[in-house]
Amino acid sequence: SRRRHTRLQGDWSSDVCSSDLSSLLANAIAKYKQYPKIAQMRGWQGTVIADLEIDSKGSVISVKIKKSSTYEVLDNEALEMIKKASPFPAPPESLRGKNFNVLVPISFKLE
User: What is the pTM of this model?
Assistant: First the structure.
């Protein structure tokens, strides 16, 4: 199967739709994952859905947990990852000049 590649450096292509944007941000954020030790030891897993408000330069204005992983330690790690990953590259032309929201899934799965 062909894998689609997404560039994160520089600008995003102008035809990025919100699901592409969501997975692009999810990939950028995932690079900063440090699975909390307590969660590893106890076998805690889950997905956090974060609601990010981003400005036209790619800076995060606000973050809300839209859906909790049900484990506070994982939710907090997701917020920490977003903080470390931002600012993001400037969004596509179509989204510039205004703030926008995007839902980003952040998964914690033990291998």
Answer: 0.81
